[in-house]
Amino acid sequence: MSKEKTLLNATETDPNKILPMKYLWARQYYKNGVANNWTPEEVPMQNDVELWKKHGGLTPDEKHLIMRNMGFFSTAESLTANNIVLSIYRHVTNPECRQYLLRQGFEEAVHTDTFIYCCDTLGLNPEEVYAAYETIPSIKEKDEFVVEITKSLLDPTFKTDSTEGMQKFVHDLIGYYVIMEGIFFYAGFVMMLSFARQNRMVGVSEMFQYILRDESIHLAFGSDLINGIVAENPKIWTAEFKRQLSVNIKKGVELEEAYARDCLPNGILGLTADNVVEYVRHIADRRLERINLDKIYGANNPFPWMSEVIDLKKEKNFFETRVNEYQIGGNLNWD
Q1: Known catalytic residue at 89
Q2: Which terminus of the chain is more solvent-facing, meaning fewer CB atoms within 10 Å of its CB: N or C?
Q3: Which domain holds residue 123?
Q4: 3-state secondary structure (DSSP) of residue 250
Q5: What is the pTM of this model?
Q6: Mean pLDDT, 10 residues at a time, over the chain (335 residues)?
Q7: Domain tally for the chain?
Q8: Catalytic residue among 117, 133, 176, 186
Q9: End-to-end Cα, the chain, rounded Å
């Protein structure tokens, strides 16, 4: 008789036994992901190309912001895919969760392909875009921080069969799901979606909205996975461990604030560095509370329209694009 299903440290054969299911939330996230299926080639970019190449079509500050976000996201998506395929899947032995992780890995590949499509279509210099993680300090520092706080996952000798091991695993999951996907992506989302509100770069903005919807599910799954591991192993949730996690998240916020100021040296599109920083602090508080940590900032949301996009509470076509073709426009609520 096999032992009861757990999120970590199941027997060698149990991961293949998906029925009967125990973690129905993981199954629901898989179904939500399938319903959200999309590819970048579905999105027309002719107007984007004309605006990008037109003399005076975009200001230098607008192009600067777009190139910073292309530079960060183009490599960040492959970094997240590496975490899933090379490490998280190996340690999360529950088959329902593994089924979702396979789906998430596919979505990360689609996101990576999105930036290939954008570079090719807009005629961007790939050397400039894909070298940003090495040449742009605000991007390089974010990537290096994520690599540092998720390094246990990539250690081939790492195991989760001890209290210390489980703590390290949760620590790294929070670095990946909460800081990388839940904080580092969101300044970029608000910046790029602001173009659509001005009816500019609507194709690129539409793809960012698709990615945002995918990432909202990734974040929700990751938060439930973290909370589930803690619930099954409450001894790892010590006061000192929680303090360390809060320190990491606060450091992540500081790096995202520096990135926002780099992207926005001047105000454009109704954005300033200060109001994007306020937004980053607002979402950081949400992320903290989602994994049962105390919020830090008490910041307000300066972009209430982003809540409508992120929470998917309405089936309407938010930017007069085709995103409403999703099959699950109103059934994701993970607050």
Answers
A1: no
A2: N
A3: 22-325
A4: helix
A5: 0.90
A6: 74 67 96 93 96 95 96 87 86 93 95 95 94 95 93 87 96 95 94 93 94 94 98 97 98 97 93 96 97 97 82 42 44 43
A7: 1
A8: 117
A9: 38
